[in-house]
Amino acid sequence: MTQKEQILNHLKNHKSITSWDAIMEYGITRLSHHIYCLRNEGFIIPDERVQVKTRLGRKTIISNYTLRDEVN
Predict the structure, then answer these.
(1) Which SS3 state, helix, strand or coil, does residue 41 take?
(2) Cα dihedral 32, 33, 34, 38 in deg (nearest 10)
(3) pLDDT in tens, 3-51
(4) 39 Cα distance to chain centroid
(5) Residue 71 backbone dihedrals phi, psi, to 5 degrees
């Protein structure tokens, strides 16, 4: 299974994914590239910026991607 397929399956099963999820679950470090490719294939994947704390307690902004619609 390709990394793009892993991301799509995760979105279908869990409805959303962050870069941290992709790294921890699948070892995928280029999530935005795979989201870009899936969007070009017709999947509607909006993203929302969310603020999280780092392991050092600082605040940072990450993207949370959700799968809204699939290609027919």
Answers:
(1) coil
(2) 100
(3) 999 999 999 999 999 999 999 999 999 999 999 999 999 999 999 999 9
(4) 12
(5) -70, 140
